Protein backbone atom coordinates (compact mmCIF):
# COMPACT_ATOMS: atom_id res chain seq x y z
CA UNK A 1 0.00 0.00 0.00
CA UNK A 2 1.33 3.41 -0.90
CA UNK A 3 1.61 5.78 2.10
CA UNK A 4 -0.80 8.23 0.48
CA UNK A 5 -2.86 7.28 -2.55
CA UNK A 6 -2.55 10.25 -4.95
CA UNK A 7 -6.09 9.56 -6.15
CA UNK A 8 -7.34 10.34 -2.65
CA UNK A 9 -5.77 13.80 -2.90
CA UNK A 10 -7.39 14.23 -6.31
CA UNK A 11 -10.90 13.20 -5.34
CA UNK A 12 -10.99 14.69 -1.82
CA UNK A 13 -9.61 18.22 -1.64
CA UNK A 14 -9.78 18.28 2.15
CA UNK A 15 -7.03 15.65 2.18
CA UNK A 16 -4.57 18.07 0.57
CA UNK A 17 -4.82 20.75 3.24
CA UNK A 18 -4.75 18.16 5.98
CA UNK A 19 -1.61 16.56 4.54
CA UNK A 20 0.15 19.95 4.56
CA UNK A 21 -1.02 20.54 8.13
CA UNK A 22 0.29 17.09 9.11
CA UNK A 23 3.75 17.87 7.73
CA UNK A 24 3.89 21.16 9.65
CA UNK A 25 2.61 19.50 12.82
CA UNK A 26 5.22 16.75 12.42
CA UNK A 27 7.97 19.38 12.30
CA UNK A 28 6.62 21.09 15.42
CA UNK A 29 6.37 17.82 17.35
CA UNK A 30 9.88 16.85 16.28
CA UNK A 31 11.28 20.14 17.60
CA UNK A 32 9.37 19.64 20.87
CA UNK A 33 10.77 16.10 21.24
CA UNK A 34 14.33 17.39 20.89
CA UNK A 35 13.67 20.31 23.23
CA UNK A 36 12.10 18.04 25.86
CA UNK A 37 15.05 15.62 25.85
CA UNK A 38 17.59 18.47 26.00
CA UNK A 39 15.86 20.24 28.89
CA UNK A 40 15.31 17.03 30.85
CA UNK A 41 18.93 15.89 30.47
CA UNK A 42 20.12 19.36 31.50
CA UNK A 43 17.87 19.35 34.58
CA UNK A 44 18.93 15.84 35.67
CA UNK A 45 22.61 16.54 35.11
CA UNK A 46 22.33 19.79 37.07
CA UNK A 47 20.59 18.03 39.95
CA UNK A 48 23.31 15.35 39.96
CA UNK A 49 25.96 18.05 40.18
CA UNK A 50 24.17 19.65 43.14
CA UNK A 51 22.82 22.71 41.34
CA UNK A 52 20.36 24.57 43.55
CA UNK A 53 16.62 24.52 43.01
CA UNK A 54 16.55 28.24 42.25
CA UNK A 55 18.91 27.75 39.30
CA UNK A 56 16.90 24.77 37.99
CA UNK A 57 13.48 26.45 38.14
CA UNK A 58 13.78 28.18 34.72
CA UNK A 59 14.80 24.86 33.13
CA UNK A 60 11.96 22.99 34.83
CA UNK A 61 9.44 25.69 33.84
CA UNK A 62 10.62 25.49 30.23
CA UNK A 63 10.39 21.70 30.40
CA UNK A 64 6.84 21.89 31.73
CA UNK A 65 5.91 24.30 28.93
CA UNK A 66 7.39 21.96 26.31
CA UNK A 67 5.50 18.96 27.70
CA UNK A 68 2.25 20.95 27.71
CA UNK A 69 2.90 22.18 24.17
CA UNK A 70 3.59 18.63 23.01
CA UNK A 71 0.33 17.37 24.51
CA UNK A 72 -1.61 20.30 23.07
CA UNK A 73 -0.09 19.79 19.62
CA UNK A 74 -0.93 16.08 19.68
CA UNK A 75 -4.51 16.77 20.79
CA UNK A 76 -5.01 19.53 18.23
CA UNK A 77 -3.58 17.27 15.54
CA UNK A 78 -6.06 14.49 16.32
CA UNK A 79 -8.97 16.94 16.43
CA UNK A 80 -8.05 18.39 13.05
CA UNK A 81 -7.48 14.86 11.72
CA UNK A 82 -10.95 13.66 12.71
CA UNK A 83 -12.54 16.76 11.19
CA UNK A 84 -10.53 16.26 8.01
CA UNK A 85 -11.53 12.60 7.91
CA UNK A 86 -15.21 13.55 8.24
CA UNK A 87 -14.85 16.07 5.41
CA UNK A 88 -12.96 13.62 3.19
CA UNK A 89 -15.58 10.92 3.79
CA UNK A 90 -18.36 13.35 2.90
CA UNK A 91 -16.54 14.42 -0.27
CA UNK A 92 -15.85 10.84 -1.32
CA UNK A 93 -19.45 9.81 -0.66
CA UNK A 94 -20.80 12.72 -2.70
CA UNK A 95 -18.39 12.00 -5.54
CA UNK A 96 -19.12 8.27 -5.37
CA UNK A 97 -22.88 8.81 -5.50
CA UNK A 98 -22.59 11.40 -8.29
CA UNK A 99 -20.21 9.23 -10.31
CA UNK A 100 -22.44 6.17 -9.93
CA UNK A 101 -25.38 8.25 -11.17
CA UNK A 102 -23.25 9.49 -14.06
CA UNK A 103 -22.24 5.95 -15.01
CA UNK A 104 -25.92 5.17 -15.21
CA UNK A 105 -28.12 2.10 -14.87
CA UNK A 106 -26.14 0.14 -17.47
CA UNK A 107 -23.08 0.15 -15.19
CA UNK A 108 -25.02 -0.21 -11.94
CA UNK A 109 -26.81 -3.26 -13.31
CA UNK A 110 -23.52 -5.16 -13.37
CA UNK A 111 -22.53 -4.24 -9.80
CA UNK A 112 -23.44 -5.59 -6.39
CA UNK A 113 -25.66 -3.04 -4.68
CA UNK A 114 -24.70 -4.41 -1.28
CA UNK A 115 -20.99 -3.91 -1.94
CA UNK A 116 -21.43 -0.29 -2.98
CA UNK A 117 -23.70 0.39 0.01
CA UNK A 118 -21.14 -1.18 2.37
CA UNK A 119 -18.36 0.79 0.69
CA UNK A 120 -20.16 4.13 1.03
CA UNK A 121 -21.06 3.52 4.69
CA UNK A 122 -18.90 1.28 6.87
CA UNK A 123 -16.03 1.12 4.40
CA UNK A 124 -15.37 4.86 4.25
CA UNK A 125 -16.06 5.24 7.98
CA UNK A 126 -12.87 3.24 8.53
CA UNK A 127 -10.87 6.21 7.19
CA UNK A 128 -10.85 7.77 10.67
CA UNK A 129 -7.80 5.78 11.89
CA UNK A 130 -6.06 6.44 8.57
CA UNK A 131 -6.27 10.23 8.97
CA UNK A 132 -6.18 10.51 12.76
CA UNK A 133 -3.31 8.13 13.46
CA UNK A 134 -1.59 6.60 10.45
CA UNK A 135 -0.78 9.72 8.39
CA UNK A 136 0.48 11.81 11.37
CA UNK A 137 2.55 8.88 12.58
CA UNK A 138 3.93 8.38 9.08
CA UNK A 139 5.24 11.96 9.03
CA UNK A 140 6.74 11.54 12.50
CA UNK A 141 8.33 8.24 11.43
CA UNK A 142 10.29 10.18 8.82
CA UNK A 143 11.02 13.42 10.67
CA UNK A 144 11.74 12.29 14.22
CA UNK A 145 14.37 9.56 13.54
CA UNK A 146 16.31 11.83 11.18
CA UNK A 147 16.23 14.73 13.65
CA UNK A 148 17.16 12.47 16.59
CA UNK A 149 20.09 10.88 14.74
CA UNK A 150 21.34 14.32 13.70
CA UNK A 151 21.04 15.66 17.28
CA UNK A 152 22.75 12.62 18.81
CA UNK A 153 25.49 12.76 16.15
CA UNK A 154 26.28 16.30 17.28
CA UNK A 155 26.69 15.05 20.85
CA UNK A 156 28.03 11.48 20.42
CA UNK A 157 28.78 10.11 16.96
CA UNK A 158 29.27 6.52 18.15
CA UNK A 159 25.71 6.25 19.47
CA UNK A 160 24.42 7.94 16.30
CA UNK A 161 26.11 5.25 14.18
CA UNK A 162 24.58 2.44 16.26
CA UNK A 163 21.11 3.97 15.95
CA UNK A 164 21.51 4.63 12.21
CA UNK A 165 22.50 0.99 11.62
CA UNK A 166 19.66 -0.53 13.66
CA UNK A 167 16.86 1.84 12.62
CA UNK A 168 16.29 0.29 9.14
CA UNK A 169 15.53 -3.09 10.74
CA UNK A 170 12.15 -1.86 11.98
CA UNK A 171 10.74 -0.68 8.61
CA UNK A 172 12.12 -3.84 6.95
CA UNK A 173 10.23 -6.06 9.40
CA UNK A 174 7.14 -3.83 9.08
CA UNK A 175 7.14 -4.12 5.28
CA UNK A 176 7.55 -7.90 5.39
CA UNK A 177 4.61 -8.31 7.75
CA UNK A 178 2.60 -5.59 5.98
CA UNK A 179 2.77 -7.30 2.60
CA UNK A 180 1.09 -10.36 4.06
CA UNK A 181 -1.39 -8.21 6.00
CA UNK A 182 -2.45 -6.36 2.86
CA UNK A 183 -3.63 -9.56 1.19
CA UNK A 184 -5.48 -10.62 4.36
CA UNK A 185 -7.18 -7.22 4.68
CA UNK A 186 -8.29 -7.23 1.05
CA UNK A 187 -9.79 -10.68 1.56
CA UNK A 188 -11.51 -9.41 4.72
CA UNK A 189 -12.98 -6.48 2.75
CA UNK A 190 -14.19 -8.76 -0.08
CA UNK A 191 -15.91 -11.03 2.43
CA UNK A 192 -17.54 -8.04 4.13
CA UNK A 193 -18.81 -6.73 0.78
CA UNK A 194 -20.09 -10.21 -0.11
CA UNK A 195 -21.82 -10.49 3.26
CA UNK A 196 -23.49 -7.09 2.81
CA UNK A 197 -24.65 -7.90 -0.73
CA UNK A 198 -25.93 -11.36 0.14
CA UNK A 199 -27.75 -10.11 3.23
CA UNK A 200 -29.44 -7.42 1.13
CA UNK A 201 -30.53 -10.05 -1.42
CA UNK A 202 -31.92 -12.29 1.32
CA UNK A 203 -33.89 -9.47 2.95
CA UNK A 204 -35.35 -8.37 -0.39
CA UNK A 205 -36.21 -11.92 -1.44
CA UNK A 206 -37.46 -13.17 1.93
CA UNK A 207 -41.08 -13.73 0.76
CA UNK A 208 -39.87 -15.88 -2.13
CA UNK A 209 -37.49 -17.81 0.14
CA UNK A 210 -40.27 -18.45 2.67
CA UNK A 211 -42.63 -19.56 -0.08
CA UNK A 212 -40.17 -22.13 -1.44
CA UNK A 213 -38.94 -23.19 2.00
CA UNK A 214 -35.37 -21.98 1.46
CA UNK A 215 -35.15 -19.41 4.26
CA UNK A 216 -33.22 -21.73 6.60
CA UNK A 217 -30.76 -22.63 3.84
CA UNK A 218 -30.02 -18.95 3.20
CA UNK A 219 -29.63 -18.35 6.92
CA UNK A 220 -26.98 -21.07 6.86
CA UNK A 221 -25.25 -19.35 3.91
CA UNK A 222 -25.19 -16.04 5.82
CA UNK A 223 -23.82 -17.88 8.84
CA UNK A 224 -21.03 -19.36 6.71
CA UNK A 225 -20.13 -16.02 5.12
CA UNK A 226 -20.20 -14.34 8.54
CA UNK A 227 -17.92 -17.04 9.93
CA UNK A 228 -15.53 -16.59 7.00
CA UNK A 229 -15.46 -12.83 7.65
CA UNK A 230 -14.86 -13.45 11.36
CA UNK A 231 -12.00 -15.81 10.58
CA UNK A 232 -10.45 -13.34 8.14
CA UNK A 233 -10.76 -10.53 10.70
CA UNK A 234 -9.16 -12.61 13.45
CA UNK A 235 -6.36 -13.65 11.09
CA UNK A 236 -5.69 -9.99 10.31
CA UNK A 237 -5.65 -9.15 14.02
CA UNK A 238 -3.21 -11.99 14.70
CA UNK A 239 -0.89 -10.55 12.08
CA UNK A 240 -1.25 -7.10 13.63
CA UNK A 241 -0.28 -8.46 17.06
CA UNK A 242 2.61 -10.37 15.51
CA UNK A 243 3.80 -7.21 13.80
CA UNK A 244 3.64 -5.28 17.07
CA UNK A 245 5.65 -8.03 18.82
CA UNK A 246 8.33 -8.06 16.10
CA UNK A 247 8.66 -4.27 16.05
CA UNK A 248 8.71 -3.96 19.85
CA UNK A 249 11.38 -6.69 20.10
CA UNK A 250 13.57 -5.08 17.44
CA UNK A 251 13.25 -1.63 19.05
CA UNK A 252 13.93 -3.00 22.53
CA UNK A 253 17.06 -4.85 21.41
CA UNK A 254 18.36 -1.78 19.55
CA UNK A 255 17.68 0.50 22.53
CA UNK A 256 19.40 -1.97 24.85
CA UNK A 257 22.44 -2.06 22.57
CA UNK A 258 22.74 1.72 22.70
CA UNK A 259 22.22 1.74 26.47
CA UNK A 260 24.95 -0.88 27.01
CA UNK A 261 27.57 0.89 24.92
CA UNK A 262 26.74 4.28 26.49
CA UNK A 263 26.87 2.79 29.99
CA UNK A 264 30.25 1.16 29.39
CA UNK A 265 31.73 4.37 28.01
CA UNK A 266 30.22 6.36 30.87
CA UNK A 267 31.91 4.06 33.38
CA UNK A 268 35.19 4.46 31.52
CA UNK A 269 34.86 8.24 31.54
CA UNK A 270 34.72 8.49 27.74
CA UNK A 271 31.36 10.31 27.66
CA UNK A 272 29.87 13.04 29.83
CA UNK A 273 26.92 12.43 32.15
CA UNK A 274 24.63 14.99 30.49
CA UNK A 275 25.51 13.69 27.03
CA UNK A 276 24.80 10.12 28.14
CA UNK A 277 21.42 11.21 29.53
CA UNK A 278 20.60 13.01 26.28
CA UNK A 279 21.45 9.92 24.22
CA UNK A 280 19.44 7.60 26.47
CA UNK A 281 16.42 9.92 26.46
CA UNK A 282 16.44 10.42 22.69
CA UNK A 283 17.14 6.82 21.64
CA UNK A 284 13.60 5.51 22.41
CA UNK A 285 12.16 8.55 20.63
CA UNK A 286 13.98 7.48 17.44
CA UNK A 287 12.37 4.02 17.42
CA UNK A 288 8.95 4.94 18.83
CA UNK A 289 7.47 6.56 15.65
CA UNK A 290 8.56 3.60 13.52
CA UNK A 291 6.95 1.13 15.92
CA UNK A 292 3.80 3.24 16.10
CA UNK A 293 3.46 3.61 12.34
CA UNK A 294 3.68 -0.18 11.97
CA UNK A 295 0.85 -0.63 14.46
CA UNK A 296 -1.31 2.12 12.92
CA UNK A 297 -0.73 0.63 9.47
CA UNK A 298 -2.86 -2.37 10.42
CA UNK A 299 -5.54 -0.20 12.05
CA UNK A 300 -5.85 1.92 8.90
CA UNK A 301 -5.74 -0.84 6.30
CA UNK A 302 -9.52 -1.35 6.11
CA UNK A 303 -10.16 2.35 5.49
CA UNK A 304 -7.34 2.59 2.96
CA UNK A 305 -8.64 -0.49 1.12
CA UNK A 306 -12.17 0.97 1.01
CA UNK A 307 -10.83 4.34 -0.19
CA UNK A 308 -8.84 2.56 -2.92
CA UNK A 309 -12.00 0.74 -4.06
CA UNK A 310 -13.92 4.05 -4.09
CA UNK A 311 -11.14 5.62 -6.17
CA UNK A 312 -11.27 2.63 -8.55
CA UNK A 313 -14.95 3.40 -9.18
CA UNK A 314 -14.23 7.11 -9.57
CA UNK A 315 -11.54 6.26 -12.12
CA UNK A 316 -14.11 4.61 -14.40
CA UNK A 317 -14.67 7.08 -17.25
CA UNK A 318 -18.16 8.48 -17.59
CA UNK A 319 -20.07 7.95 -20.84
CA UNK A 320 -18.89 10.33 -23.51
CA UNK A 321 -20.43 13.78 -23.12
CA UNK A 322 -22.23 15.60 -25.92
CA UNK A 323 -19.99 17.10 -28.56
CA UNK A 324 -18.80 20.60 -27.62
CA UNK A 325 -19.97 23.69 -29.45
CA UNK A 326 -23.36 24.88 -30.53
CA UNK A 327 -24.52 21.36 -31.31
CA UNK A 328 -24.28 20.36 -27.64
CA UNK A 329 -26.98 22.95 -26.87
CA UNK A 330 -29.30 21.79 -29.66
CA UNK A 331 -32.81 20.75 -28.74
CA UNK A 332 -35.48 18.70 -30.45
CA UNK A 333 -39.20 19.16 -29.80
CA UNK A 334 -40.53 15.61 -29.44
CA UNK A 335 -44.09 16.83 -29.92
CA UNK A 336 -43.32 17.28 -33.59
CA UNK A 337 -39.96 15.54 -34.24
CA UNK A 338 -39.61 12.10 -35.77
CA UNK A 339 -37.13 9.77 -34.09
CA UNK A 340 -35.01 7.69 -36.45
CA UNK A 341 -32.92 4.65 -35.51
CA UNK A 342 -30.43 3.92 -38.29
CA UNK A 343 -28.87 0.42 -38.18
CA UNK A 344 -28.44 0.52 -34.43
CA UNK A 345 -26.22 -2.06 -32.76
CA UNK A 346 -25.75 -2.21 -29.00
CA UNK A 347 -23.24 -4.51 -27.30
CA UNK A 348 -22.85 -4.23 -23.54
CA UNK A 349 -19.33 -4.26 -22.07
CA UNK A 350 -18.14 -7.77 -21.27
CA UNK A 351 -20.64 -9.43 -23.62
CA UNK A 352 -19.96 -10.88 -27.02
CA UNK A 353 -23.53 -11.12 -28.31
CA UNK A 354 -25.12 -7.76 -29.15
CA UNK A 355 -28.34 -6.87 -27.37
CA UNK A 356 -29.51 -5.13 -30.56
CA UNK A 357 -28.12 -5.79 -34.02
CA UNK A 358 -28.78 -3.55 -37.01
CA UNK A 359 -32.15 -2.22 -35.85
CA UNK A 360 -33.68 0.53 -38.02
CA UNK A 361 -36.92 2.21 -36.97
CA UNK A 362 -38.94 5.31 -37.68
CA UNK A 363 -40.97 6.65 -34.76
CA UNK A 364 -43.24 9.48 -35.94
CA UNK A 365 -44.42 12.09 -33.46
CA UNK A 366 -47.70 11.08 -31.81
CA UNK A 367 -47.41 7.42 -32.84
CA UNK A 368 -48.35 4.49 -30.61
CA UNK A 369 -45.82 1.73 -31.00
CA UNK A 370 -45.93 -1.65 -29.30
CA UNK A 371 -42.66 -3.59 -29.03
CA UNK A 372 -43.05 -7.33 -28.45
CA UNK A 373 -40.73 -10.28 -28.25
CA UNK A 374 -39.51 -12.97 -25.85
CA UNK A 375 -37.33 -12.22 -22.85
CA UNK A 376 -33.82 -11.19 -23.85
CA UNK A 377 -34.84 -10.07 -27.32
CA UNK A 378 -33.63 -6.48 -26.77
CA UNK A 379 -36.85 -4.67 -25.84
CA UNK A 380 -35.52 -3.03 -22.67
CA UNK A 381 -32.24 -2.23 -24.47
CA UNK A 382 -34.24 -0.26 -27.04
CA UNK A 383 -35.74 1.84 -24.24
CA UNK A 384 -32.29 2.25 -22.64
CA UNK A 385 -31.01 3.79 -25.89
CA UNK A 386 -33.91 6.22 -26.05
CA UNK A 387 -33.41 7.13 -22.40
CA UNK A 388 -29.69 7.56 -23.16
CA UNK A 389 -28.77 5.17 -20.39
CA UNK A 390 -26.66 3.42 -23.05
CA UNK A 391 -24.94 4.59 -26.22
CA UNK A 392 -25.14 2.60 -29.47
CA UNK A 393 -22.06 0.62 -30.42
CA UNK A 394 -22.80 1.27 -34.07
CA UNK A 395 -25.39 3.24 -36.02
CA UNK A 396 -27.03 6.56 -35.18
CA UNK A 397 -30.18 7.84 -33.51
CA UNK A 398 -31.66 11.11 -34.73
CA UNK A 399 -34.51 13.31 -33.53
CA UNK A 400 -35.78 15.85 -35.99
CA UNK A 401 -32.71 15.19 -38.15
CA UNK A 402 -30.25 15.97 -35.31
CA UNK A 403 -28.02 13.15 -33.98
CA UNK A 404 -28.90 12.27 -30.40
CA UNK A 405 -25.39 12.90 -28.96
CA UNK A 406 -25.59 16.50 -30.22
CA UNK A 407 -28.78 17.17 -28.22
CA UNK A 408 -28.72 18.55 -24.70
CA UNK A 409 -29.09 15.54 -22.38
CA UNK A 410 -31.14 17.27 -19.67
CA UNK A 411 -33.51 18.83 -22.23
CA UNK A 412 -33.92 15.45 -23.95
CA UNK A 413 -34.82 13.57 -20.78
CA UNK A 414 -37.13 16.39 -19.66
CA UNK A 415 -39.39 15.42 -22.59
CA UNK A 416 -39.58 11.75 -21.61
CA UNK A 417 -41.85 10.00 -19.10
CA UNK A 418 -40.68 6.50 -18.21
CA UNK A 419 -42.63 3.82 -16.39
CA UNK A 420 -40.36 0.83 -15.74
CA UNK A 421 -41.51 -2.70 -15.17
CA UNK A 422 -40.71 -2.48 -11.47
CA UNK A 423 -40.90 1.23 -10.52
CA UNK A 424 -38.88 2.31 -7.51
CA UNK A 425 -40.77 4.22 -4.85
CA UNK A 426 -38.73 6.06 -2.25
CA UNK A 427 -39.26 6.33 1.48
CA UNK A 428 -40.99 9.73 1.31
CA UNK A 429 -44.69 10.49 1.18
CA UNK A 430 -47.03 9.51 -1.62
CA UNK A 431 -47.14 13.12 -2.83
CA UNK A 432 -43.34 13.35 -2.88
CA UNK A 433 -43.10 10.14 -4.91
CA UNK A 434 -45.59 11.40 -7.48
CA UNK A 435 -43.93 14.84 -7.59
CA UNK A 436 -40.72 13.14 -8.64
CA UNK A 437 -42.12 13.54 -12.15
CA UNK A 438 -42.43 17.32 -11.74
CA UNK A 439 -40.57 18.79 -8.74
CA UNK A 440 -42.41 21.69 -7.14
CA UNK A 441 -45.81 20.62 -8.46
CA UNK A 442 -48.84 21.87 -6.54
CA UNK A 443 -51.01 19.59 -4.42
CA UNK A 444 -53.86 20.05 -6.90
CA UNK A 445 -51.67 18.95 -9.82
CA UNK A 446 -50.49 15.89 -7.87
CA UNK A 447 -54.07 14.92 -7.00
CA UNK A 448 -55.15 15.36 -10.64
CA UNK A 449 -52.32 13.11 -11.85
CA UNK A 450 -53.30 10.49 -9.27
CA UNK A 451 -56.94 10.59 -10.49
CA UNK A 452 -55.88 10.16 -14.11
CA UNK A 453 -53.73 7.17 -13.14
CA UNK A 454 -56.57 5.61 -11.13
CA UNK A 455 -54.58 5.94 -7.90
CA UNK A 456 -56.61 8.59 -6.08
CA UNK A 457 -59.05 6.15 -4.44
CA UNK A 458 -56.51 3.97 -2.63
CA UNK A 459 -54.29 6.98 -1.80
CA UNK A 460 -57.16 8.77 -0.06
CA UNK A 461 -57.85 5.60 1.96
CA UNK A 462 -54.31 5.67 3.39
CA UNK A 463 -53.98 6.91 7.01
CA UNK A 464 -52.69 10.37 6.01
CA UNK A 465 -53.72 10.41 2.37
CA UNK A 466 -51.10 11.98 0.13
CA UNK A 467 -48.96 12.79 3.19
CA UNK A 468 -48.62 9.10 4.13
CA UNK A 469 -44.97 7.97 4.27
CA UNK A 470 -44.50 4.91 2.10
CA UNK A 471 -41.51 3.54 3.99
CA UNK A 472 -38.74 1.46 2.51
CA UNK A 473 -39.64 0.19 -0.99
CA UNK A 474 -43.30 1.16 -0.36
CA UNK A 475 -44.03 -2.19 1.26
CA UNK A 476 -47.53 -1.06 2.31
CA UNK A 477 -48.62 -0.86 -1.35
CA UNK A 478 -49.46 -3.73 -3.68
CA UNK A 479 -47.68 -4.20 -7.01
CA UNK A 480 -50.62 -2.70 -8.89
CA UNK A 481 -50.77 0.30 -6.56
CA UNK A 482 -47.06 0.93 -7.01
CA UNK A 483 -47.55 0.79 -10.77
CA UNK A 484 -50.34 3.36 -10.56
CA UNK A 485 -48.16 5.73 -8.53
CA UNK A 486 -45.53 5.41 -11.26
CA UNK A 487 -48.17 6.19 -13.88
CA UNK A 488 -49.22 9.23 -11.83
CA UNK A 489 -45.62 10.44 -12.11
CA UNK A 490 -45.88 10.13 -15.89
CA UNK A 491 -49.21 12.02 -15.98
CA UNK A 492 -47.76 14.80 -13.81
CA UNK A 493 -44.67 15.08 -16.02
CA UNK A 494 -46.84 15.66 -19.10
CA UNK A 495 -44.01 14.62 -21.43
CA UNK A 496 -44.44 14.25 -25.21
CA UNK A 497 -42.63 10.87 -25.28
CA UNK A 498 -43.84 8.09 -22.98
CA UNK A 499 -41.81 4.88 -22.56
CA UNK A 500 -43.58 1.98 -20.86
CA UNK A 501 -41.66 -1.18 -19.99
CA UNK A 502 -44.27 -3.92 -19.54
CA UNK A 503 -46.47 -1.85 -17.20
CA UNK A 504 -48.95 -4.72 -16.68
CA UNK A 505 -46.42 -7.52 -16.21
CA UNK A 506 -46.78 -9.77 -13.13
CA UNK A 507 -50.24 -8.39 -12.36
CA UNK A 508 -53.55 -10.22 -12.22
CA UNK A 509 -55.99 -9.78 -15.10
CA UNK A 510 -58.28 -7.26 -13.40
CA UNK A 511 -55.42 -5.07 -12.13
CA UNK A 512 -53.64 -5.31 -15.49
CA UNK A 513 -56.81 -4.19 -17.28
CA UNK A 514 -57.05 -1.13 -15.04
CA UNK A 515 -53.38 -0.29 -15.62
CA UNK A 516 -53.76 -0.59 -19.39
CA UNK A 517 -56.84 1.65 -19.31
CA UNK A 518 -54.76 4.27 -17.49
CA UNK A 519 -52.03 3.83 -20.11
CA UNK A 520 -54.60 4.40 -22.85
CA UNK A 521 -55.60 7.67 -21.19
CA UNK A 522 -51.95 8.68 -20.85
CA UNK A 523 -51.26 7.99 -24.52
CA UNK A 524 -53.57 10.73 -25.78
CA UNK A 525 -51.61 13.26 -27.86
CA UNK A 526 -48.23 11.72 -27.03
CA UNK A 527 -45.69 9.44 -28.66
CA UNK A 528 -45.94 6.14 -26.80
CA UNK A 529 -43.58 3.19 -26.98
CA UNK A 530 -44.94 0.26 -24.99
CA UNK A 531 -42.89 -2.86 -24.39
CA UNK A 532 -45.00 -5.97 -23.95
CA UNK A 533 -43.81 -9.51 -23.41
CA UNK A 534 -47.17 -10.96 -24.29
CA UNK A 535 -50.36 -9.94 -26.08
CA UNK A 536 -51.79 -7.89 -23.21
CA UNK A 537 -52.06 -4.60 -25.06
CA UNK A 538 -55.52 -4.41 -26.62
CA UNK A 539 -55.59 -0.72 -27.41
CA UNK A 540 -54.94 0.81 -30.81
CA UNK A 541 -51.36 0.71 -32.11
CA UNK A 542 -49.96 2.46 -35.16
CA UNK A 543 -47.12 -0.02 -35.39
CA UNK A 544 -46.24 -3.35 -33.80
CA UNK A 545 -42.51 -4.08 -33.72
CA UNK A 546 -41.31 -7.61 -33.05
CA UNK A 547 -37.82 -8.35 -31.80
CA UNK A 548 -35.96 -11.64 -31.56
CA UNK A 549 -32.33 -12.02 -30.47
CA UNK A 550 -31.80 -8.28 -30.87
CA UNK A 551 -33.02 -8.15 -34.48
CA UNK A 552 -36.27 -6.98 -36.08
CA UNK A 553 -38.65 -9.70 -37.20
CA UNK A 554 -40.25 -8.83 -40.56
CA UNK A 555 -44.06 -8.51 -40.57
CA UNK A 556 -45.71 -11.90 -41.07
CA UNK A 557 -42.57 -13.88 -40.20
CA UNK A 558 -42.74 -16.38 -37.36
CA UNK A 559 -40.55 -15.94 -34.29
CA UNK A 560 -38.47 -19.08 -33.71
CA UNK A 561 -39.61 -20.96 -30.60
CA UNK A 562 -37.41 -20.88 -27.53
CA UNK A 563 -35.25 -23.93 -26.98
CA UNK A 564 -36.43 -26.24 -24.17
CA UNK A 565 -34.35 -26.43 -21.05
CA UNK A 566 -33.02 -29.89 -21.97
CA UNK A 567 -31.70 -28.60 -25.29
CA UNK A 568 -30.10 -25.58 -23.63
CA UNK A 569 -28.38 -27.85 -21.11
CA UNK A 570 -27.04 -30.10 -23.86
CA UNK A 571 -25.84 -27.20 -26.04
CA UNK A 572 -22.03 -26.82 -26.23
Output the CATH homologous superfamily of the largest domain: ABC transporter type 1, transmembrane domain
CATH architecture of the largest domain: Up-down Bundle
What's the CATH C level of the largest domain?
Mainly Alpha
* Number of helical segments with 4 or more residues: 18
Biggest β-sheet: strands ordered side by side in the sheet: 6-7-8-3-9-10
Low-pLDDT residue spans: 324-328, 562-572
> What is the typical, i.e. mean, pLDDT?
78
Order of helices and strands: HHHHHHHHHHEEEHEEHEHHHHEHEEEH
- The SS-based structural class is alpha/beta
Question: How does the overall form come out from the CA principal axes?
Answer: elongated
Rg from Cα? 34 Å
Assembly of the depicted chains: single chain
Number of domains: 2
* Terminus-to-terminus distance: 44 Å
- Major sheet: 6 strands, mixed
**What percentage of residues falls in helices of 4 or more residues?**
55-70%
Assign the CATH topology of the largest domain. Answer: ABC transporter transmembrane region fold
Kindly state the number of beta strands: 10
Amino acid sequence: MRPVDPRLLRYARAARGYLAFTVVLGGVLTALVLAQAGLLSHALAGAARGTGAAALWPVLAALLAVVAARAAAAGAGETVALRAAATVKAQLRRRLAGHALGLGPAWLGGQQAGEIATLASKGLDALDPYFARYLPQLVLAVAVPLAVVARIAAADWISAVVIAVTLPLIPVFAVLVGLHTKARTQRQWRLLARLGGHFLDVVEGLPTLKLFGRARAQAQVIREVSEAHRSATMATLRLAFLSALVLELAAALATALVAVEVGLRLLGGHIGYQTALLVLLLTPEAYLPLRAVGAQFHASMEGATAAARACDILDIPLPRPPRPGAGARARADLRSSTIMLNAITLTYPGRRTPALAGVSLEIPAGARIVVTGPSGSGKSSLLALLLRFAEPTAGTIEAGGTPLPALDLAAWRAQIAWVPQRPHLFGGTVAENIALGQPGASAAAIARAARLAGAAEFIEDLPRGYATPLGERAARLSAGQRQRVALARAFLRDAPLVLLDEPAAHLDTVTARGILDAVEALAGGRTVILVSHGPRWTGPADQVIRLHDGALVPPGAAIPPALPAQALAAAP
